[in-house]
């Protein structure tokens, strides 16, 4: 077997580590000069979306012998709508660094690998597939998938983000659901430390959103964050991203080509997160290659949660600010909080039921 992995991101690296653990070495190609050679941000894994694997870090360690050191445990998530604020508390997940940061997850994964990564190698699938028996497509870009099979795009998203300075509590995150600046989308603050955080504004590129003034949305977002956190927000660095595709592939595998991470469609439509799913698909592809699993079978639960997540998003998108206020208020209720934090409950299904009556009124 001659295995190539295109892309040394989360999915490519977990695939390579798992292959190594079973005695196989892949040729790993990375177009950049080092892993995570891009802007620094904080990302999060919310436990409530990973049923039945509520503690992702423990799960990767104990089940897959892949060890991640998050930057913080998430203990409190604030939910802000236009006129309401509520929060949920508990063991809610983790934050971690990405990009050019010494503790970035891609760096942590690369450190667990013996195999050398071939840097500055932007390879094409067409060329690689002739030389290798197995190819793992892990470029983090659904457009690469689209060259090989249909990729059903649910929506494209615009990200505007910044590293901000202020006073933060590392274990607390703030989320904003407010159509005034995050139309059919959301904004969130994930602390890197007590003094620095990532602020992200993300919304779908629907025609009605495209007609809006992007800078105005961003300025409104900044001022709302300042008001809700009751402090001045100092911007250290900004970035923006467009055309981030959220969608699903037709088949996770064609012949001996495996689609993993964002190339698989790992992004969950509800909040646009995909770290957990990306790492999982990398591991699962490796299991298939070494003969201890069937990739198509292993990813079936991910397909199901993608569809649950998409239908919940479609319901949420119908809500105006008044309805978002009602929903936020409803979350500020111990019964609902315990449903959300219950380890045995599939949150996507529960939330779908909660949101449904609100969206029916829309
Ligand atoms: C702004 C932003 C915030 C996010 N926040 C969160 C969050 O909070 N929580 C969460 O769970 N998810 C989040 N996500 C999504 C998450 O980052 C992705 O789902 C995940 O990184 C995808 O992993 P991957 O391995 O598919 O791709 P990546 O980790 O992006 O890795 C792809 C790698 O392939 C390399 N590459 C590309 N093309 C080639 C080529 N032709 N040849 C060789 N190498 C190539 C790239 O340089 C890169 O290193 C966020 C995404 C963005 C954009």
TrEMBL record:
<dbReference type="InterPro" id="IPR036188">
    <property type="entry name" value="FAD/NAD-bd_sf"/>
</dbReference>
<feature type="domain" description="FAD/NAD(P)-binding">
    <location>
        <begin position="1"/>
        <end position="141"/>
    </location>
</feature>
<dbReference type="GO" id="GO:0016491">
    <property type="term" value="F:oxidoreductase activity"/>
</dbReference>
<dbReference type="Pfam" id="PF07992">
    <property type="entry name" value="Pyr_redox_2"/>
</dbReference>
<dbReference type="InterPro" id="IPR023753">
    <property type="entry name" value="FAD/NAD-binding_dom"/>
</dbReference>
<protein>
    <submittedName>
        <fullName>FAD-dependent oxidoreductase</fullName>
    </submittedName>
</protein>
